[in-house]
């Protein structure tokens, strides 16, 4: 029988419209200043650079926060002029961190973040339904870490990354008038390290690296639904129409250089440069146990070209202290898409994006409250994916709101 072709986007997040499926929402204070990283004021620096823990003024620091992220994508077929819009729920990325300095030169900490994930939901009958109808992703990073301060101006830090995630993906199989649901859990391991410099009381320099993490789904569940159950035996499925599959998604490495300079005691500016090694995400392979739904010589294997390329992000932010209790923040950044118009995919829509950010911070003795927001302006794309037969124009909008809390008791 004819093969069923399956294009896969396993574990691909969709909250961040540039940067592939990386979600830059790991600190409320940082987002207000364009998500810059060289800020060693509390434990929120831990995710960005573990070495920064050594420069936190407080011996113990605890932070937690979350975001509401709203996004919408519109695709228009330029031949038929038919327009389709997503109906995505609000995303809620979270983070928490703790840093403690048991002895003068040594700091230890732990960071919890959700750096990949969201939900994209297209109409069930739209023209790209064979690629995706709905895709839900949740991911969690758990990072224990340590930092050692060599002297007054230099520290080194390292972290271990344990990642967990799961995906739930619906798509149509029009060849038999059916549907396919892919549901899986995945896990992976990685590491990070960095140097944090303070050569002058006015200047902080952060240099950090976060390794790739291969998210491996070893026992995914594929559920097929067809008008007639007689199709199940032909695909090697059980009576309920299910099969298992394996897949690996590479979450790529990230290099960051960050600077913060205090122009005056009340006013500072920050800048970051991020480099993402997306080239290693050239394809995605889905290996079914029995179902001949692939596109290779072995009909149980489906390979989807991705053809990602390395991408950069440029960030600039500022903070002004109105007094010892109230801080105002602004920022802007530009995030490159990691693929061309010829490789645009509706499972992980990505755009070259300009983002403006802002926020305020309140400090009352040991407690801090931060509020931030960001408005994204993704640039429209001319979709020309010949491999998927997918052509048209794609547009997007997105905005973020965040609330963070900090506690620095001593």
| Overall geometry | elongated
Tell me roughly what share of residues is in helical segments.
under 10%
Q: Structural class, from secondary structure content?
A: mainly beta
CATH class: Mainly Beta
Looking at this structure, what is the CATH superfamily? Answer: Outer membrane protein transport protein (OMPP1/FadL/TodX)
CATH topology: Porin
- Mean pLDDT across the residues is 91
Radius of gyration, taken over Cα atoms and rounded to an integer in Å: 23 Å
Order of helices and strands: HHEEEEEEEEEEHEEEEEEEEEEE
Oligomer: single chain
Strand fraction equals: over 45%
* Distance N to C terminus: 70 Å
Give an account of the 3D structure.
- There is one protein chain.
- The protein is mainly beta and 410 residues long.
- It has a single domain (28-170, 182-216, 249-275, 316-407), classed as Outer membrane protein transport protein (OMPP1/FadL/TodX) (Porin).
- 3% of the residues lie in helices and 56% in strands.
- It has three helices and 21 strands.
- Strands 1-3-4-6-7-8-9-12-13-16-17-18-19-21 form a 14-stranded antiparallel beta barrel.
- The radius of gyration is 23 Å and the shape is elongated.
- The N and C termini lie far apart (70 Å).
- Belongs to the OmpP1/FadL family.
- Keywords: Cell outer membrane, Membrane, Signal, Transmembrane, Transmembrane beta strand.
- One of its GO terms (cellular component) is cell outer membrane.
Quick overview:
It is a multi-pass membrane protein. It comes from Chryseobacterium defluvii. By secondary structure, this protein is mainly beta.
């Amino acid at each position: 029988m004819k093969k069923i072709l399956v294009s896969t986007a396993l574990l691909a997040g969709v909250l961040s419209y540039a940067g592939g499926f990386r979600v830059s929402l790991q600190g409320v204070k940082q987002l207000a200043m364009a998500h810059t990283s060289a800020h060693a004021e509390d434990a929120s620096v831990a995710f960005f650079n573990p070495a920064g823990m050594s420069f936190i003024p407080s011996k113990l620091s605890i932070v937690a926060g979350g975001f509401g992220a709203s996004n919408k994508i519109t695709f228009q077929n330029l031949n038929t002029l038919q327009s389709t819009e997503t109906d995505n729920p609000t995303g809620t990325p979270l983070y928490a961190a703790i840093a403690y300095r048991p002895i003068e030169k040594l700091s230890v900490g732990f960071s919890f973040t959700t750096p990949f994930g969201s939900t994209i939901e297209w109409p069930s009958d739209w023209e790209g339904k064979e690629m995706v109808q709905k895709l839900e992703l949740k991911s969690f990073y758990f990072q224990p870490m340590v930092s050692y301060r060599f002297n007054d101006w230099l520290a080194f830090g390292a972290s271990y990354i344990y990642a967990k995630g799961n995906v739930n993906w619906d798509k149509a199989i029009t060849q038999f008038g059916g549907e396919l649901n892919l549901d899986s859990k995945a896990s992976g391991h990685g590491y990070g390290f960095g140097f944090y410099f303070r050569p002058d009381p006015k200047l902080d320099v952060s240099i950090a690296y976060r390794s790739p993490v291969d998210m491996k789904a070893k026992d995914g569940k594929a559920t097929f639904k067809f008008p007639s159950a007689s199709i199940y035996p032909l695909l090697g499925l059980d009576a309920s129409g299910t099969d298992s599959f394996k897949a690996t998604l590479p979450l790529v490495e990230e290099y960051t250089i960050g600077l913060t300079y205090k122009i005056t005691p009340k006013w500072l500016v920050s800048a970051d440069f991020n480099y993402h090694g997306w080239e290693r995400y050239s394809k995605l392979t889905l290996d079914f146990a029995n179902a001949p739904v692939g596109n290779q010589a072995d009909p149980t294997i489906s390979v989807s070209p991705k053809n990602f390329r390395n991408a950069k992000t440029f960030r600039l932010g500022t903070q002004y202290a109105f007094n010892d209790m109230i801080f105002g923040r602004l920022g802007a950044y530009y995030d490159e898409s990691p693929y061309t118009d010829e490789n645009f995919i509706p499972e992980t829509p990505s755009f070259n994006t300009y983002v403006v950010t802002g926020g305020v911070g309140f400090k009352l003795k040991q407690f801090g409250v931060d509020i931030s927001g960001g408005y994204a302006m993704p640039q429209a794309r001319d979709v020309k994916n010949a491999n998927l037969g997918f052509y048209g124009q794609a547009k997007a909008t997105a905005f973020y709101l965040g609330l963070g809390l900090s506690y620095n008791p001593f």
